[in-house]
Amino acid sequence: MLNFEFHNPTRIVFGKDRFRELNRLIPADATVLLCYGGGSVKRFGTLDKVRQALGERNVLEFGGIEANPRYATLMRAVEVVRREQIDFLLAVGGGSVMDGTKFIALAAEYAGNPEDILFGKAKPAQLASAVPLGTVVTLPATGSEMNSGGVISHGDGKFVFFSPHVFPRFSILDPTLTFTLPPTQVANGVVDAFIHTVEQYVTLPAEGRFQDRTAEGILRTLIEIGPVTVADPKDYDARANLMWCATNALNGLIGAGVPQDWTTHMIGHELTALFGIDHAKTLAIVQPAVWTVRREQKRAKLLQYAERVWDLGAGDEDSRVDTAIARTRAFFESLGVATRLSAYGVSREQIDTVVRNLEAHGMVALGEKREVTPEVSRRILEEAW
Amino acid sequence: MLNFEFHNPTRIVFGKDRFRELNRLIPADATVLLCYGGGSVKRFGTLDKVRQALGERNVLEFGGIEANPRYATLMRAVEVVRREQIDFLLAVGGGSVMDGTKFIALAAEYAGNPEDILFGKAKPAQLASAVPLGTVVTLPATGSEMNSGGVISHGDGKFVFFSPHVFPRFSILDPTLTFTLPPTQVANGVVDAFIHTVEQYVTLPAEGRFQDRTAEGILRTLIEIGPVTVADPKDYDARANLMWCATNALNGLIGAGVPQDWTTHMIGHELTALFGIDHAKTLAIVQPAVWTVRREQKRAKLLQYAERVWDLGAGDEDSRVDTAIARTRAFFESLGVATRLSAYGVSREQIDTVVRNLEAHGMVALGEKREVTPEVSRRILEEAW
Predict the structure, then answer these.
(1) A97 in Cβ contact with A33 (< 8 Å)
(2) Which structural domains are found in chain B, ordered by start?
(3) Is the pTM of this model over 0.80?
(4) Which of A62, A80, A272, B190 has the fewest CB atoms within 10 Å, i.e. is most exposed?
């Protein structure tokens, strides 16, 4: 097992109607900025319920945080936070709203140019604080509700940032708030959680037995409940299991002390930025291709994945790996998520542009051993096409 | 899935020689009380290394915290904390030292009679703070390094307390610090972690799929590495996996949102208090008997346990349950831990005394549905004899 540090102070409040407890979770004298996305939290009454639970507090709203939230949008919220002396941010939404709110929290207290935070130019001493924040999760997928990172769009790229100061103080996970989601978003959530898990698991053997077993448990659970929860939005237990798996897939637990490989996310980010393909759908496109191209490097863990997740313990090794990759692809497709780049209208020629952007964004040595050069990324994209 | 709240702010610093990082983890101006047990941390040099890592800080020592730490012992430390204006407690040891240090932390800031904390008479408002504490773990077993509870001996009983204020600020888990443990203590650690896990898992079905899979992962890992780590104390990876499993077995993760049944612990506490049997050994005695006596109530989860932990998916149900119980018993015995009350010199007649003490301590409705009356406990003890 590799050395690690694990610290996750987010309080999870899980269950039906738990947003009623917002009153105890946010300081009574706080001026709150409610951050949200499009109209669905308004349309389905979630925002009203949340406002009611906040009682007599001074509450302002900032709506319009888009999917793949943009720097310029968020900077308008930063102005509001500074001008109105906001002292608590409450994100109501999915990963984009939560990530965006984390960025607002950090940027509002950053003395320099907040672009620094995205471009890795901010020094730790400059990132010594953030406006405290909490979340009410309406879309189980990204795990943002219980981690310290976010992804923000700027120009033609997507940029990742981390700070221990943006761990949510609390996150309310109420499966019933997700009942109104369209099936395609739920399918995306299943895929996102699945890929987060394999990126911390299908790497190199490292004797992280608890981590591996827990990752395998998340994957098996997603395989069991994925189709159920896409088909029947009101199956509480299926949705609850999706929600809790998505959180645990990216709260640091399964990645502590083991190698990680975020190739799929980094290539996927370019596909979203260039072609507007949903984040999770880009992952479903790229992941099977990463495994196909890098099967030798990942052989031991692919065999473990085949055996423990898909019960493929017999037969020759190569066919086990092939079948595991094919089953994974079929699982995504069964949720209605296409797994080929060509299915999203991207031409083979456009792969050049993707590779160029990876290079422009410094994504030239990806993978658990930094072996994924632009040339390897090209092979992955060609395989994924 | 049941509703739950999960919050665990302890920072885990895991790996070889991590105690060197104590300097960054404890405030520079703190007056520290080092709390420890018998001579082993002195004999093997751990205490010296820790003192060195603390640098120029004002450091006092409180040694002699015994196994199953006693109220009277700990109250002597409370006096030191108050007199010397200690502002950080550092526990160096196993579960007893960590539990004892948590009690010291809470009692030192408690205005009334600290016995209230053990007897459930302290009101939450009276338990609003504790002296901050950290731990350096030398014995993987109880999970105390990452939870908010402790067990203290007082008179003829063992008493459990909880407070969110006694979560360690950090815990240093260095597998190499455990290399000098005697095999019997390592075996006890494996059993303790195993039982913690099944008490949150072999209960009633509750659609906690992530929790069940994670529990099963801990159990399978303990079965894999238990004999290895007892036989070869210097196998770093085996010891690391034991250590991280023991922590995760009782940090709230696998018990969140599912029923729990602490019957085995409650009966076990009486056996330790009356007969001085090691805590873990009492658990190995009681658990198989709990399952035998309550097999109908626990049937669904026992079958799941049989299938997913012991690969017993075929044959008639009753024989699967029988075999799973027998395998569990054989696993404990293979570690050198006897699983019969009679093996520890307790007579059948003494069961009366155990049942009387359970009643005296209010342990009259144990189990996930509070169905374990003193009469059921008697049957369990007779089965365990």
Answers:
(1) no
(2) 11-177 (3.40.50.1970), 183-384 (1.20.1090.10)
(3) yes
(4) A80
